From TrEMBL:
Protein name stated in the entry: Proline--tRNA ligase
Gene3D superfamilies on file: Anticodon-binding domain, Bira Bifunctional Protein, Domain 2, YbaK/aminoacyl-tRNA synthetase-associated domain
Alphabetical GO biological process terms: prolyl-tRNA aminoacylation
Keyword Aminoacyl-tRNA synthetase: yes
Assembly mode: Homodimer.
Keyword presence, Cytoplasm: yes
InterPro entries, sorted: aa-tRNA-synt_IIb (IPR002314), aa-tRNA-synth_II (IPR006195), aa-tRNA-synth_II/BPL/LPL (IPR045864), Anticodon-bd (IPR004154), Anticodon-bd_dom_sf (IPR036621), Pro-tRNA-ligase_IIa (IPR002316), Pro-tRNA-synth_IIa_bac-type (IPR004500), Pro-tRNA-Synthase_IIa_type1 (IPR023717)
Family: Belongs to the class-II aminoacyl-tRNA synthetase family. ProS type 1 subfamily.
Classification of source organism: Bacteria, Pseudomonadati, Pseudomonadota, Gammaproteobacteria, Cellvibrionales
Main location: cytoplasm
Amino acid sequence: MRTRHYLLATQKETPADAEIVSHRLMLRAGLIRKLSAGLYTWLPTGLRVLRKVEQVVREEMDRAGAQEVVMPVVQPAELWQESGRWVQYGPELLRIKDRHERDFCLGPTHEEVVTELVRNEVNSYRQLPINLYQIQTKVRDEIRPRFGVMRSREFIMKDAYSFHASQASLEETYRAMHVAYCAVFERLGLAFRPVVADSGSIGGSTSQEFHVLADSGEDAIAFSDGSDYAANIEMAEALPPTAARPAPTAALEEVATPGVDSIASLCSHLAVDATRTVKTLVVAGEEPGSLVALVLRGDHSLNTVKAEKLPGVASPLRLVEEAEVRDTFGAGFGSLGPVGVALPVIADRSAAVLADFSCGANRDGYHLVGVNWERDLPLPRIEDLREVVEGDPSPDGKGVLQLKRGIEVGHIFQLGTKYSEAMDATVLDEHGRSVTLHMGCYGIGVSRIVAAAIEQNHDDRGITWPAAMAPFEVAIVPLNMHKSEAVTSAAEALYEHCRAAGIDVLLDDRDERPGVKFADMELIGIPHRIVIGDKSLAEGEFEYKGRKDDEAQRIDRDHALDFLR
Ligand code: ATP
Ligand code: MG
Ligand code: MG
Ligand code: MG
């Protein structure tokens, strides 16, 4: 590629509304441009990186025996009604109607669609196990898109779905996916950690997340320094009870709380710590004049349903007993516990916003962690979390817990029969009996990985890509191009040699000052730079500098290609 006719789109200025370094650098290095909240165009340089990530993912999925397909982004409501998620999924599901007033959604994930495919195409245990994957655009109407492509409303995901005649077979593929995910993140050169996870609105029992460790991560990962134990502390059930844990919230009675206007003041009002989570606190309005708050386990999607059904929310919150919660909302929430607080600040907010005001609570203390607030509340401070978690013994009896921030880049689930039962997906076993399919699903945030990699790989001059993700491997920067015949022909020759050798090379043939070119190549993060100037050329040499090197070095022009390889 030659820069002269290439949409380089680099920027000097630091974009004002970009909060984290990867977002700033993706804009400045000309990787992405914002169209609207959470919607981004991938520019040529960004797309090159994205394609490299996709290719690594594709190769490892193929190696693990998965088969690539592409399913529609637009999905009919009927399938989601069959699984129950048309109602459960809540406002993150972007719904549309066609010209005949039929309901559709834009797929945030594809369990329903793939189950529909497999129940039609697979009839016998002999065709199993099968693992289908796609690398495709997903749409989620995130309440708070932010950090550029890190949390966007349209993003690229690799999602795979496996089907099995038995739980044992599911477990085997789940392990193979775990291995494939580790291979992907290793090849991409990322510092990552697999952790025990909450299965959220996807459902299912066993699940693990893969986190890229970075201070800007939205999740907090607790891990043991003495064993392999690691968990996203959204799932504090895996954590041990500690002496430090306060007793269950004392006065579970009607309370009015002037001054409660943030997660922090809410927590301090409830006299709980903002750390451990196994349950979700849902704040929902029952009728004008009253709010109830319930603590649910696990499935975030349920909050949304219930809150949606409850218009006319007003303060103050009222505390409710478990039995009352069951009466009001029906059973099916798993283990409920009473908790509540007056929270005037949310009283005038829409049900959708309330639905997303979820907090975590621990098994016995209803400890809270605030997430997803429409206003710009800070995330729980890692320092606050640290106080309680760090130094606690491990759940598995080995070592003590440490805490780090993580960015979720992958998630694998054993779904069991959740979807196949609801959607009647069965096969005949070896005795001719009908058995419900066991299912697993496995996601990788392909576009999020690009941002996560930059969080881990940058310096004050720009991006320092891991080799496997760099948009170009080599930058050729000729000094005085078009004025010096010798420089021009040497640059052109090296460019052609690189291309012939299959090296991704960018020839900076712009009429710009050397300083401008150097700054751009460093900002974009090209790992190898070769400068060609009259002086060194006269001595039969080029000047080489690695992106992370302090000093440039001379290399023999005739062996430049060997040097690069
Ligand atoms: P998060 O907890 O960050 O909202 P999730 O648990 O909802 O993610 P999954 O349903 O597990 O996401 O989807 C698989 C992967 O897709 C995630 O691990 C993540 O890397 C990526 N992903 C999810 N939501 C987004 C988004 N809004 N923007 C970019 N990538 C996303
Ligand atoms: Mg999500
Ligand atoms: Mg998650
Ligand atoms: Mg997830």
